[in-house]
Structure prediction request, 439 residues.
Amino acid sequence: MSTFPIKQEIIDQFKEDLGIKNIAYATIRQIVNLVNKLEQKYQVQFIRTEMGVPGLPANRIGPNAEIKALNEGVASAYPPIEGIATLKTELARFASLFLNIDITPEGCIPTVGSMQGAFVMFLVANRRDANKTKTLFIDPGFPVQKRQLAVLGMTYESFDLYNYRGEKLKDKLEEFLQKGDISTILYSNPNNPSWVCFTEKELKIIGDMANKYDVIILEDLAYFGMDFRENFGKPGLPPYQPTVAHYTTNYVLLFSGSKIFSYAGQRIGALLISDALFHKRYPDLTRLFNTDRFGLTILQEGLYTASAGTSHSAQFGFAAMLKAVNSGEMDFVSEIKTYGDRAKVMKQLFLNNGFHIVYNKDEDRELADGFYFTIAYNNMKGDELLNNLIKYGISAITLDTTGSTRTEGLRICVSQTGEDRFDDLKERLQLFKKAYPTI
Prediction:
């Protein structure tokens, strides 16, 4: 006898146990816990698409370098807050070889994942000007970044990119920036959750706006090189990963080892701060901090008070992988391209069963196949759709929590669904379609 559909009263009971009042606004971790409880009760493995975790093993270069460093005694030594010299050098080389931008090692600073990087940037950048205290999010986006601002007692503005692609982006940005209270703009590229990728035209618009209104751009590159329509993995050769850094010096790039190196467990990332911004002075910083220099405030006030540095051994692992990539010994794009292959198959399985893709274009280009995609079904709202998919052993998150206006949609992450689960996904989607026929 089939487990599916799971009884609604069981789902409701577990939701109540976990404090989930409205599944549309459940956190990712709440969905994880809900599905864990259902898997345990029914002894069935869900198709897990709710959490963006790496689904591939880390290249041994990183762990081996960490083991070597630990054997040499780094565990007993505090890491330098600014980062070990070899990592800073390799981060600067990576920026040159894969982004085609020049940053001195001084502005390449390791962080405890790019999440800490964002937190510290909010902490400092939104206090550099007494009149500019807000962040503008180009949504949809990563919900936790808005929670970070709430924890810091800061406020934000946001808009959904969906209806403002291309030239329309300029007027929308000006609508917010001309008020004069925006200090930072944050977006991810490729975008989590929609997987849209900003075009060069759009990045130039953002850069021009940063210059015009003295706004700092926080460009989240957690999914670096994962627009697989191009191969951004050839050191020193075009095409290069698109970035706003080509159009302004008012930028900080949030870089992460979690996805491109499958190194999420080591919590290692970096801030790549332009030389001009790193050395810039903001007198208003001294209202709260001991210096008016932006880069020094990040180091001596932000990172020092947040964690007093980043794991010593993890820095050695990160540096070793970057060195291998920079030297052409390790092709990181080929190692993670399987995500694009999975997305192509999984997307088609959803389409074959009456679903449609919510965010489906980059201006006039078809969206890339990558780590995420977005789906909707019939006239169901996102919370109803998620609830009904859970009945058939498929988990996801709604777009409601991401700042998207497309509340009919869900985010699908492909990382935990290998080829061995495609038949299970196909079967469950067919059962779902039979229970909820397309209109």
